[in-house]
Amino acid sequence: MTVRLSHHPTRYWHRLEDGRVQCDVCPRACKLREGQQGLCFVRACEGGEVVLTSYGRSSGFCVDPIEKKPLSHFLPGTPVLSFGTAGCNLTCKFCQNWDMSKSREMDTLAASASPEAIASKAEALGCRSVAFTYNDPVIFLEYARDTALACRERGVRNVAVTAGYISPGRGRTSSRPWTRPMWTSRHSPTTSTTASAAATCARCSRPWNT
Ligand code: SF4
User: Fold this and answer.
1) Alpha carbon of 21 to ligand 1 centroid (Å)
2) Looking at the chain, which terminus has fewer C-beta neighbours within 10 angstroms, N or C?
3) pTM score over 0.70
């Protein structure tokens, strides 16, 4: 399958009467004119439509222990391939990944990586899961979704580290559930966590999402 990296078409936006387009991915509801970028920096108005400019452009990869996500009852003791992109729809003053989340250096920061390449690399490295982390995957949900589906086809699980600052229904962008088992929240204690795990930890039999 040929994947178009970067400047990827998106689905959740609508045109306003004044000629601008409004992104409907998160509650920021950015209203954009041609050439403008949203608060997250990576969704922009191009050709009269909202596109994702970070599709296939990772800010780097790292193999972490799954407990660092932090998950203690999901595939315990296994490595996870972590990656993120530039940009974020949050503005936390304490962000530990500010150099990525507030980066405006898309070309120097981003490494090209298609969803299939990430899934393949995870498998080759012996990672049982891939994590969308460092910045909030809400802003690159099309990239995360395609990567998750590619991983699922290889038996690699997916973890999304997110504050859940997303408009209702936007996590389901295909007929197949692509973030099973879970989304975790570590950005703020006041934000919600959406979890869809149904299985239990093989070690202690507790549900994965507790
Ligand atoms: S995802 Fe980005 S462009 Fe869209 S509403 Fe949120 S901050 Fe704005």
Assistant:
1) 11
2) N
3) yes
Per-residue pLDDT tens digits for 25-78: 999 999 999 999 999 999 999 999 999 999 999 987 999 999 988 888 899 999
Tell me how far the alpha carbon of residue 194 lies from the centroid of ligand 1, in angstroms.
19
Residues 173-194: tens digit of each pLDDT: 544 445 554 555 544 433 333 3
Query: What number does the ligand 1 atom closest to the CA of 26 have?
Result: 6
The domains of the chain are located at 8-52, 60-184
Could you tell me which of 167, 198, 166 has the C-alpha nearest to residue 181?
198
What token pair was written down for 18?
């004044």
One-character DSSP codes across 142-195: HHHHHHHHHHHHTT-EEEEE------TTTT--SSS--S-EEEE--S-TTS---B
Q: Which CATH fold topology does 60-184 show?
A: TIM Barrel (3.20.20)
